[in-house]
Amino acid sequence: MDTVVITALDQEGRGVARVDGKAVFVEGALIGERVAIDVLRRKPNYELARMTEIVAASPARATPACPHFGVCGGCSLQHLDPAAQVAVKQRVLEDALWHIGRVRAGELLPPIHGVPWGYRHRARLSVRDVPSKGGVLVGFHERKSSFVADMRCCLVLPARISALLPELRSLVQGLSIRNRLPQIELAIGDGASGGQPVDALVLRNLAPLSPADERALGEFAQRRAVDLYLQPQGPASVHPLRPPARRLAYALPEFGLSIEFAPTDFTQVNASINRMLVRRAIALLEPQPGEAIADFFCGVGNFTLPIARRGSNATGVEGSGELVRRAEANAVANGLSDRARFTVADLSAATASSIQSLGALDKALLDPPREGAIALVKALPDERLRRIVYVSCNRATLARDSAVLVRQHGYALAAAGVANMFPHTAHVESIALFTRD
């Protein structure tokens, strides 16, 4: 049995130690801790180990609040104090920018953080009938497994949704299609005029419902005041069990905006952090009346419409035609159709000519998926475009793309920081500002 000192956390939240130049990954260990380990697997460049004893604990070590922690794969950092989680993520971002991109931020932005529990307004729950565990299970996957965790609650979901998990299990257990219903997706919208939130559940049904199934689901929806949707095929097939369904939307009060979305559209998981992130992004971008600004990977208009609200001429670019149609409708509903336009384009195949077709740009905002925006950043014009805000859900691709912006396009990485969009996970959401004289 060896003893090691943990010096970092990896992207899965595992402790990392260095022994004779080799990385040793230790599940459950925290930065600064000395732990005893048993090595489970040896590879030429790394080792996987199991922690057998905490010899010297981190002062930031916390007692996990969730009874399913360690089994459920939804959270990996509940044993670390929430404030310390934010500090670790800031350090992880800095390390990625330097070690991958060889760039450093001129300014480290104050981290964006909020409430650590009950924050998830979106979730994708797996469903599986497992007779050996008592029947239907509804929840996240077990850690590093395709099995569904045996969950009775989930503390990162709003309390009212967490309380539904046992009843959802019983509900699906009684359906004729329980073996043909692999997933339930959650989407929560703000209530109209500050009223009660709108809770929507999308059931991925791979077989038609029986009349008895429809009655059971309808009674559940009425009893629990949720809107149920069915999805027999792709996202375009989603429809309410019993129309009409209530409007799903979220508010950006600082900009006087209400943004409508469909239950399977991409929106941020953490609504309160998203509001702060939009505020930060717009402050860094500094949109001015009359400026031409592109919002790449615009979705339903999360950043495009606040840019337009500041008086700029905003162009949202998105690969999904359905999302573009939703964004256009949101522009009309918010009185911004004269300053916000949208176009469909595959940004993973962006070229200099495709970007030039948007017209001359003063500034740009990028909010790409995990794959990053390497084709786009290579294609960005070198003339006139002097300010770029990059919102990222993957620190590695942000670092890679930052290197291109700095070395090939001559930008300075003026500022960068994190937003704790997913408390208790190792996920790092970040924002960076690039400027050029």
What can you see in these coordinates?
With 437 residues, this protein is of the alpha/beta class. The protein is 24% helix and 28% strand. Strands 7-21-22-20-19-16-17-18 form an eight-stranded mixed β-sheet, sandwiched between helices. The protein has a six-stranded mixed β-sheet with strand order 1-5-6-4-3-2, with no helix packed on it. Helix 1 crosses helix 10. The longest helix has 18 residues. It is flat and about 65 Å long. The protein starts with a strand and ends with a strand.
Q: What's the gist of this structure?
A:
Helix content is 24%, strand content 28%.
Offer a few descriptive terms:
single chain, 10 helices, 437 residues, alpha/beta, 24% helix, eight-stranded mixed beta sheet, flat, six-stranded mixed beta sheet
Summing up helix and strand content along with how strands pair, one would put the structural category as alpha/beta
Number-wise, the strands total 22
- Span between N and C termini? 57 Å
**Mean pLDDT, all residues:** 96
The profile of the biggest β sheet is:
8 strands, mixed
Spatial order of the strands in the main sheet?
Answer: 7-21-22-20-19-16-17-18
| Regions with little confidence, pLDDT below 50 for 5+ residues | none
Shape: flat
How much beta, percentage-wise?
Answer: 25-35%
Number of helical regions: 10
The level of helicity is 10-25%
Radius of gyration: 23 Å
Fold topology:
Layout: E1 2-5, E2 8-9, E3 15-19, E4 22-27, E5 34-42, E6 46-56, H1 82-99, E7 107-108, E8 122-130, E9 135-139, H2 159-162, H3 165-173, E10 183-189, E11 198-203, H4 211-224, E12 227-230, E13 239-240, E14 249-252, E15 257-260, H5 271-285, E16 292-296, H6 304-309, E17 313-318, H7 321-333, E18 340-344, H8 352-356, E19 363-366, H9 374-379, E20 387-392, H10 395-407, E21 412-419, E22 429-435
Parallel strand pairs: 4-6, 7-21, 11-12, 16-17, 16-19, 17-18, 19-20
Antiparallel strand pairs: 1-5, 2-3, 3-4, 5-6, 8-9, 8-10, 10-11, 12-13, 14-15, 20-22, 21-22
Helix pairs in contact: 1-10
